[in-house]
Amino acid sequence: MKIMSVPNVVILNDGSRAFIHKQRGEVMEKIYVVGQYIKGETSNIIWHIQGVFDTEEKALEACLNERYFIGPINMNEALPDKSVLWPGVYYPFSEKETI
């Protein structure tokens, strides 16, 4: 499956690149973005990125209050070029479920 490797990156047979988790040695399929809601509604939300994490547990540790949210993103998957609701996003310390 692996043609050649660079630190933390492998080149797969189809020519694509995949990131390898440093400690676990497995291909990362998802990352977790932690953001802090600032203001706005639906398509006009302002938020600050607080970090990007390789596990949901680490993302949870970065959330400080009810304004922080976690949004998973699949690796190697193009995102839409228009505003959409973020699938899987949630506020761990709030009643809100999505942005």
Describe this structure in words.
With 99 residues, the chain is mainly beta. The protein has a domain at 27-74. Helix content is 7%, strand content 37%. It contains one helix and six strands. The chain has one helix spanning 56-62, and strands at residues 2-6, 9-12, 17-19, 30-39, 46-53, 68-74. Strands 1-2-3 form a three-stranded antiparallel β-sheet, with no helix packed on it. It has a three-stranded antiparallel β-sheet with strand order 5-4-6, covered by helices on one side. It is flat, with a radius of gyration of 16 Å. It starts with a strand and ends in a 25-residue tail after the last strand.
The total strand number stands at 6
Average pLDDT for all residues: 80
Structural class: mainly beta
- Radius of gyration, in angstroms, nearest whole number: 16 Å
Helix content: under 10%
Offer a concise description of the structure:
7% of the residues lie in helices and 37% in strands. The chain is mostly beta strands.
Write the layout of secondary structure elements.
Blueprint: E1 2-6, E2 9-12, E3 17-19, E4 30-39, E5 46-53, H1 56-62, E6 68-74
Antiparallel strand pairs: 1-2, 2-3, 4-5, 4-6
Which properties best describe this structure?
99 residues; mainly beta; three-stranded antiparallel sheet
